[in-house]
Amino acid sequence: MKIEDSLGKRTLDVKGVIDGREHKQIVDGSPTTFIAKWNDDRLIWETKRETTVGVLHNRRTMRLAKDGKVITAERTRILPEPEETWTEVWEKQ
Q1: Which H, E and C letters describe the chain, residue by residue?
Q2: What Å distances lie between residue 68 and 2, 3, 26, 38, 53, CA to CA?
Q3: Which of 60, 52, 12 is nearest to 35 (CA)?
Q4: Over the stretch 17-72, which tens digit does the pLDDT of each residue have?
Q5: Per-domain residue ranges of the chain
Q6: Cβ neighbour number for residue 49 with a 10 Å cutoff
Q7: Is the peptide bond before 80 cis (omega within 30 degrees of 0)?
């Protein structure tokens, strides 16, 4: 994941199997839990990181377009509150 926020720009390398189970690891020095699972034709990808600024918990529900060129991701920030959801569109270059 490439992130740009109040802590700056960085790349976080999160790993795990798409099996719906928690995969605990250390990412960028922070304890992180990664979960990935299929729900019909949607991939749900969730990360929960314990950082110096608090717990950061995000979920993306992703769907590949039939033409294979666009992924639409509904992203929900669970923590920090308030919970907020928005849509990201990733296009094949």
Answers
A1: CEEEECCEEEECCCCCCECCCCEEEEECCEEEEEEEEEECCEEEEEEEEEECCEEEEEEEEEEECCCCCEEEEEEEEEECCCCEEEEEEEECC
A2: 22, 25, 32, 17, 37
A3: 60
A4: 999 999 999 998 999 999 999 999 999 999 999 988 899 999 999 999 999 999 99
A5: 2-91
A6: 23
A7: yes
**Type of residue numbered 62:** M
The residue written with tokens 């795990």 in the block is 16
Q: 39 CB contacts (<8 Å, ≥6 apart)?
A: 61
Tokens matching residue 52: 């110096």
- The separation between CA 68 and the C-alpha centre of its own chain, rounded to angstroms, equals 20
Q: How many residues are present in the chain?
A: 93
